[in-house]
Design goal:
- With about 220 residues, the chain is α+β, with helices and mostly antiparallel strands.
- About 25% of the residues lie in helices and about 20% in strands.
- It is globular.
Length: about 220
Amino acid sequence: MKHKKSGRIYRFKLLADLGYSFCEIVDFKDVSSLIAKVYDYIEIDICKKIQIESIIRQKLLIKAVKVFSMPRNNKGNAIWKYVGTNSNYNREFPLFKELDCYPFELDWSKTGIGYKNPGYQEFTEYIRCSYEEIRHLPTRIYKHINSIPYMTSAIYLLRNGSSIYDYFDIKKESWRNMYIEIINTYLSKEDADEKIAELKQFMKDNGIKEPRIFKG
């Protein structure tokens, strides 16, 4: 672990006038990658003085995302703004999940089983388990740091009962894949089943073929 940049917290703007949320970066690049975590915390008033302690007391909305680079600290109301450092950041490498099938199958629970990866040795430390045991775990898929605001916004929109289809063009594969990952990771099985059925109907109505299951 590299400590110099670890624990840095950045504010970023959410979609749909939801406000602003906060991301913490932990630097594991010496053994794996940068890890981004998002706190379950929204700030509406951009002029309000930011209290780091109030942020880090919250639970994590997104427990871990592997990202390629640090956020760019932009001035003004731009997408990222460095706001402080959590000196007591978690130094333990997070758990991730891996699947037997190509990850953009609509319903990941159909695989029945999966694997959790308890360390940074991505291809040697898998523990076999049922999918429901690992549903809540993030995937090992690397993402661009600027995907974090979109993922966070989508999770909050779902929580608020809003329609994802009003804010994201789900006809596009990139947005659809993001939505599929959110459904299969950040929703309960009951809610996921409902959203998957809705997505299947949307794809059928728009002439989009469901992805073919690919066994790795």
